[in-house]
Amino acid sequence: MTNSASVATMAAMSYYPWQFLLVALAGWINRHQQDVIAYLQEENQVYRELASGKRPRFSDEQRRRLAAKAKALGRRTLEGLDCMVTPDTLLRWYRRLIARKYDGSGRRGPGRPRESGALADLVLRMARENPTWGYTRICGALANLGHQMGRSTVRRVLLENGLEPAPRRSTWRAFLRRHWGQLVATDMFTVEVLMPRGLIRYVVLFVMELSTRKVSIGGVAPDPAAGWVKQVFRNQVDACAGFLLGKRYILMDRDPLYSQAVRALLDVSGHFKYSHPRPLSKTAA
Q: What's the rounded Cα separation, in Å, for the pair 248 and 258?
């Protein structure tokens, strides 16, 4: 059988000489490539031992070169190699390389120009003078004046200047800000006075102008009644020297001494309006 095999091989070589030569050359090249790969892997291992476990620092150019080569091999091949970095890191570098290629942020323009100062002032004036107007209503009013502005731009202008949307813009704080010069407040406090017969509690009724903090003492009485309170306010709204002249809004609590007769007196004199104040933290303007 040995002689027969040798004869068959010689016959094949005589019939296909070039094919046999190519197969032999391919086998030699494959063995040579395996030897080169084995040497490079061993050299890589030596470099890692010399680094003593320190994390390598790659430049952007080195990352780009490694990522391009790693993509050609694929994840499965990379997992079989003893790489300096993990396959996930190499492929992540490649994705960043592709994303940077199509990144157009450096060529973007500045965007839509901001509105002029006069137009922004007009928006703020409309919002302050019309607390119930929403963004769409303000846009419509601007369009009537020949100005085009979107709802989002109106919203941004108002928020940048501390104005909230329409349902919350007409707040107690906004009311105080608009009518601060016409606001007064009234209240009562007690004072203990030492008399020959002992301590007697007196009630002091006062009215204060909020814009100037000017105080007017309306009256002092040991046992006030609704009639006495009414007379005090009759003096305060006097047409000649009343402290409440020029005022339109008065803040008072729900004390029973502020009877309906007192409130009717305030309503009749100068279209006066009274209101129950909110918590003190919201009344500071």
A: 17
